[in-house]
Design brief:
By secondary structure, this protein is an all-alpha fold. Helix content is 80%, strand content 0%.
């Protein structure tokens, strides 16, 4: 890892930057979470940036491991492409949910994002099993976010 510290740094900064930009673009609308009815088990709003920061770090480490591995170029390419799509979808989800307040569309969008995360894990597992395992918290949190998003939609329509 010491030899490739720049790759790891850039790989972690990319999702942190995407998340930071998304937060910046939605910051004025994030208070909607306090204004809408939320389903049981909804965490306090301060927890979201903490969890996302940790997830972005894990995602970056995971992508760096796959990027640096040259044993299966096809799976590496498909995994990193799927990861990029999921990260782009992650960026847009916040805008759909917070800015557009389109809760049902945000839920459907989240299902698509989850598909690409699972696809990422599938291809990562062919390249680096540890990198694939680092994506598991992301799958769990996005699944939980799906529950919350659907709950917000159903409770506020």
């Amino acid at each position: 890892m010491k030899k490739h510290w720049k790759t790891y740094l850039i790989s972690v900064l990319i999702p942190l930057g995407v998340g930071g930009l998304s937060a910046l673009l939605t910051r004025g609308n994030m208070d909607i979470y306090k204004q809408v009815a939320t389903p049981p088990l909804s965490p306090p709003s301060w927890l979201f940036p903490v969890v996302w920061t940790l997830l972005y770090i894990l995602m970056g480490i995971s992508s760096a491991r796959v990027y640096l591995d040259r044993t299966d170029n096809r799976s590496r390419h498909h995994g990193l492409l799927s990861y990029g799509v999921s990260l782009f979808m992650n960026f847009l989800w916040s805008i759909i949910f917070f800015n557009m307040r389109s809760f049902l569309f945000a839920f459907v969008w989240l299902l698509g994002m989850l598909f690409f995360i699972l696809r990422t894990v599938y291809y990562y597992s062919k390249v680096d099993k540890s990198a694939a395992k680092l994506q598991i918290p992301y799958i769990i949190w996005v699944s939980f976010a799906g529950y919350l998003t659907l709950g917000v939609y159903l409770l506020n329509r």
